[in-house]
Amino acid sequence: TPQTLLNVNGIEVIYNHVILVLKGVSLNVPERSIVALLGGNGAGKTTTLRAVSNLLRGERGEVTKGSIELRGERIEALTPADLVHRGVIQVMEGRHCFGHLTIEDNLMTGAYTRRDGKVAVHETLEKVYAYFPRLKTRRHSQAAYTSGGEQQMCAIGRALMANPKMVLLDEPSMGLAPQIVEEVFGIVKDLNAREGVTFLLAEQNTNMALRYADYGYILENGRIVMDGAAKALAENEDVKEFYLGMG
Ligand code: ATP
Predict the structure, then answer these.
(1) How far is Cα 225 from Cα 67, in angstroms, rounded to an integer?
(2) Residue of 19, 22, 221 to test ligand 1 pocket, by largest number of atoms within 8 Å of CB
């Protein structure tokens, strides 16, 4: 059985000292897996990812209960930069490419924490281009003038430039045509299979996410209401009724 990479154990998150948003969320992400965190708008998916990557503080949020462990090490007190050094990178919702930079310069900003020199960084860039041929074609284009799909690919590619072990991917399907979502998820699946990158994927698009994930958790109003192997969830009658139309 695969080792646990990330373990979230009963976390509570409060915003602005009063708004209780996560009410005891637990989840387990095995090494080299794709885990989907599913649920509607406002369920708490983004908050869960922010808790893991320690990006809550800027949002006036804090983890008030529970624990978060990466390979058994408590990580709640680490900075986002510490987490990058441990191989954990978050790709934010809404893509966040630098519009005025070219695709290639955007990708290169993802390598700023690397200590292993130009040659290794260049090899990673070529690898990113091999997975995302569209980015290679568009490498000299200003990101602002590329399509939504290309910008999402750029955001994932930029995360890959840091050589991550684990990518926290927030709603990659948002605003994209189904065919482009398939393309993006297909590449995520390849990266997982061939490079061993672990993904924790927050998605409203339950149907699509369950086709690519190994395991899923369904979050509702700050609580996990169901979890299981992706296949089993996709075939579950309650999931079909309540979630498969979403996204
Ligand atoms: P979405 O698809 O909208 O991103 P989500 O499942 O990711 O949904 P969150 O963004 O985690 O949900 O939000 C969960 C709840 O926390 C929502 O009710 C939201 O209004 C609230 N919330 C999020 N960020 C803050 C904040 N900075 N301050 C106060 N409340 C917040």
Answers:
(1) 19
(2) 19
Atom 10, ligand 1: residue with shortest CA distance: 46
Nearest CA to ligand 1 atom 16: 21
Ligand 1 atom nearest to CA at 171: 2
CB 24 within 8 A of CB 10: yes
pLDDT tens digits, one per residue of 125-154 = 999 999 999 999 999 999 999 999 999 999
> Which tokens in the block code for residue 72?
């058994």
Quick check: 196 and 32 in contact, CB under 8 A? yes
Give the Cα separation of 144 and 41 in Å (integer): 27
Q: How large is the ipTM? A: 0.94
Q: Which residues line ligand 1 (CB under 6 A)?
A: 15-16, 19, 21, 39, 41-47, 59-61, 93, 204
Asked whether 205 and 39 are in contact (CB, 8 A), the reply is no
Residues belonging to the chain: 247
Crossing angle, helix 117-131 and helix 148-160, to 10 degrees? 140
How many angstroms separate the CA atoms of 34 and 123, rounded? Answer: 25
| Prediction pTM value | 0.94
SS3 127: helix
The amino acid present at 209, given as its one-letter code, is A
Yes or no: say if 88 and 55 are a contact pair by the CB < 8 Å rule: no
Backbone CA torsion sign across 27, 25, 245, 19: negative
